[in-house]
Amino acid sequence: MTYKHSNSLQYDPLTRQVTVKAQKRADKTKGKKKGIIYARVSTEEQKRKGNGINAQISDCERRAQHQDVEIVSVFKDEAVSGTTLSRK
């Protein structure tokens, strides 16, 4: 899968997490870099292994603080697994 801005996305196949790198703005605005958090869990196994939504958000918040990034929005996606044929 290729994204338009793939240089700003990182995918970890072990945890199936996608992280977005904060990009510097072209203009000369002052202040912190801004970022978003997108957390997704599709299986109960991910939750049991400690990769639940809240764990992902906490990890992203720690990383953002370490990299001096202001989180402006958090998206939670408790999706149904892509291998499941039945949908709600």
Give an overview of the whole structure:
- The protein has one domain.
- The strands form two sheets. Strands 1-2 form a two-stranded antiparallel ribbon. A two-stranded parallel ribbon has the order 3-4.
- The protein contains two helices and four strands; from the N terminus they run βββααβ.
- By secondary structure, it is an alpha+beta fold.
Return Rg in Å: 15 Å
Separation of the first and last Cα atoms: 26 Å
Quickly count the helices. 2
Number of domains: 1
Largest sheet: 2 strands, antiparallel
Helix percentage range: 10-25%
| Strand order across the largest sheet | 1-2
Based on DSSP secondary structure assignment, what is the total number of beta strands?
4
Structural class: alpha+beta
Summed over residues and divided by their number, the pLDDT gives a mean of: 76
Give the SSE layout:
Layout lengths: L8 E4 L4 E4 L12 E8 L3 H5 L4 H14 L2 E9 L11
Parallel strand pairs: 3-4
Antiparallel strand pairs: 1-2
Give a brief description.
With 88 residues, the chain is α+β, with helices and mostly antiparallel strands. It contains 2 helices and 4 strands; from the N terminus they run βββααβ. The strands form 2 sheets. Strands 1-2 form a two-stranded antiparallel ribbon. The chain has a two-stranded parallel ribbon with strand order 3-4.
Top keywords for this entry?
alpha+beta, 88 residues, elongated, 2 helices, two-stranded antiparallel ribbon
